[in-house]
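Interim report to the steering committee. The following record documents the input for PleD family two-component system response regulator (267 residues).
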Amino acid sequence: MAVVIRNSIQELTLQLLQYIHRGIAKGGSCGVILAPCAKLNSGMLEQAQELMGNKEASSSAQLFYDDSNQVLCAVFEGGTLGSTHYASLILKDFLQPQHLLQGQLKVSGFPESAQPTESAIADFIQQAIRSRGDAVDIRFLTAAEAAASVLIADPDDIVRQFIKIRLQLKGYRVYEAQDGQEAYELFLGRLPDLVITELNLPILDGYQLIRSIQRHESDEGKVIVLTDNHLADNKSRAYESGAADYVTKPLSISELEWKIKRLTGTH
């Protein structure tokens, strides 16, 4: 069903992320089209929904319009980049003659073009919004355009802030948590590309946090342990819990940055 919504960019990001993960779970992939449009009423939106639904390649289309940011979103469960591109041509031919399209249609297929993380989707939406006023065209999102996001879980405020500032200067989107429960809730809400965690965390310890992340149904959840624990048994237990790497304090920020680049593919 096509609907008109009123959302901030962050709320739109999380809503679109839910659609995409649901689409991938059902069909193995998910195509998305974002189009900056003039104010779209419910009647026009229903027409666009019917048009997309009548096309064989787009039979699972779900359309909604974000009234606050004036972006039309079309999600295709099981859609590939190729089939979504085809659908974007049809949608462009519908919107343009009615002078509704106000910029570039942004097209992507997940996970074909990029991993469906909060940072990738937020960047995708920002690209669509920034294209308003550009010549009408169709553009594709690539993995290289998607900024990586990192969640830092550490009870030490100084350590968290130091890492956060260094990573933000490198262009990463950074979230922070003081305990394991807060970190896991942030993980579920933001689906970051990478988690950096101390083992000695309140409420949920680092081992419990890692195992909780690994049990999550998404394919996100690469974890780097950053800890004061130097014992081999702690290191083995962290890897057994599902950690991807292990760094000991005192912190070498250059070593940590290299490991983050390797795990997120941001070389």
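The chain has two domains: 3-145, 149-264. The committee is asked to note this result when reviewing the revised timeline.
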